[in-house]
């Protein structure tokens, strides 16, 4: 278990041992925090036949099946876009039948906010009248997009956020290279997101971005020139600009910074259109960014 989530996991394991765990948990937190891993490890603990405190035994039949990703009483629902009603109905059918291993049955719904209204409504009866020893684990980074009727029937579990030192310490155990402290600040509460970004940096690094950003703010380079240099890495530039603007907003209230974040979101949508002129839309965004110093 990730160190920043270990305390919460131990508390839940104690409730499992005391048979006091709520049948439906809504596991909340920002992306890159570790919600999916948390839900999966909790499910494996529920299914283990010989668990010891907050640890699975690793040797019982349930643990062996989980290790092979083939446990008949663990069901997972997820989707890259939307979770359809048929996915939920199929999952419910498996839950209402008897457990194959004569133990718990667990349904994990990753990114529960992507359920359609029909999907959510199909899940309601199961949440209201769960079968014996059945557990539903829903994860989300956008709880406000989940129907209130779903939220009200779940116990809300907001996972703790790690501080910057904890984030960097964990990433250093996974990433054998120097970590830019300013880059890490953009992901201070999302260690997995920081790790993923570091792995994807390759030739266009955050150092390249931050150096160009500083030159722009100091008037040493133009928005047009940067846009031309960065157009092949437009997705990263937009993402990092959003992170940078949000980080700045936590340190100072600024209408310009807020508008910059909104425009980055708008440009991200524009870049999804085929044939869009990346240099043009990036220039407009960087022109807005250059106003930050003036503000």
SSE map:
Layout: H1 6-17, E1 24-28, H2 35-47, H3 61-67, E2 74-77, H4 85-96, E3 105-109, H5 117-128, E4 134-140, H6 148-151, E5 155-158, H7 164-174, H8 181-185, H9 191-200, H10 206-217, H11 223-230, H12 234-251, H13 255-270, H14 278-294
Parallel strand pairs: 1-4, 1-5, 2-3, 3-4
Helix pairs in contact: 1-2, 4-5, 7-9, 11-14, 12-13, 13-14
How many separate domains make up the residues?
A: 2
Helix amount: 40-55%
What's the CATH class label of the largest domain?
Answer: Alpha Beta
| Poorly predicted segments | none
CATH topology of the largest domain: Rossmann fold
Write the H/E string, N to C: HEHHEHEHEHEHHHHHHHH
Radius of gyration: 23 Å
What is the general shape? Answer: elongated
Number of strands: 5
| N→C terminal distance | 44 Å
Query: Helical element count?
Result: 14
InterPro entries: AAA+_ATPase, DNA_pol_HolB, DNA_Rep/Repair_Clamp_Loader, P-loop_NTPase
EC number: 2.7.7.7
Keywords: DNA-directed DNA polymerase, Nucleotidyltransferase, Transferase
Catalytic activity: DNA(n) + a 2'-deoxyribonucleoside 5'-triphosphate = DNA(n+1) + diphosphate
Notable features of this structure?
single chain; 295 residues; alpha/beta; Rossmann fold; five-stranded parallel sheet; 5 strands; AAA+_ATPase; DNA-directed DNA polymerase; 3'-5' exonuclease activity; nucleotidyltransferase
